[in-house]
Amino acid sequence: MIKALEETTEFLEARGFDKPEIGIILGTGLGKLIDELEIISEVSYNHIPGFPTATVEFHKGKLIFGKLDGKKVVVMQGRFHIYEGYSLWDVTYPVRVMKRLGIKKLLISNAAGSINPEFKKGEIMLIDDHINLQGGSPLAFKGVEHLGTRFTDMSAPYDQESGRILQEIAKENNINLRKGVYVAVTGPQLETRAEYRYLRIIGADAVGMSTVPEVIVANHLGIPIAAVSVLTDEGDPDNLQPVDIQDIIEAAGQAEPQMITLFRELIKRIKLKSIA
Questions:
Q1: Which segments constitute the Nucleoside phosphorylase domain (predicted)?
Q2: What is the pLDDT of residue 219?
Q3: Could you tell me where the beta strands, DSSP code E, fall in 47-99?
Q4: For an engineered disulfide with 9, which of 89, 100, 195, 246 has Cβ 3.0 to 4.6 Å away?
């Protein structure tokens, strides 16, 4: 494990990934933040030792290093999912690599379905907490104690200060930023009417198929996280309409400029602290 992480890190450092301060994971339909970047180096996932290869056709599959508003960032353009057949170690491997490269903050975006009837398609939700229904933990493996504390505290998995700043930015830019609980399911099938009812009952405001494993590992490594969901469809069990993945991508693209504003302004304002 450690040897593999060292090999990956050394490979990227040799290709100019020089002490990034912030890591960014871009979700489905949310790749245009790259256009705002001063790119210094980029590598396809399939060229990086130890990295899985993105199999979802609308995920680009590149790790990109550059500068954004004066800060050095490393960006995952496309992520990995359990539904692609990957293990939770594979899904979260890039977070461990970004930590070794030097990141002090992690920003995550995803496309999600709204469960809260007050949250509408096209809005953005600040993730304040989450529920893990993916059937496993990325920390449940032999030797995890060599990479961090086995029994990782999750009482506050998302950085409250970053959340407060994002809410300020949203208010200043007339962005209707919701705040709620994200539930992660395995997928790739979408939810039934009964499942939407169940998820609402247990306290979820939005549902998706990613993010939670990466957040658990970031907490395991002591990396503060800010995460947002772009709400791409509405899961009303009493009036459930068929959803096509292309509709989800289109909805994400329409809301993406607001997400970019939130992330860019947050990057400008956050003060980075050293992490042991």
A1: 21-268
A2: 97
A3: 62-68, 71-77
A4: 100
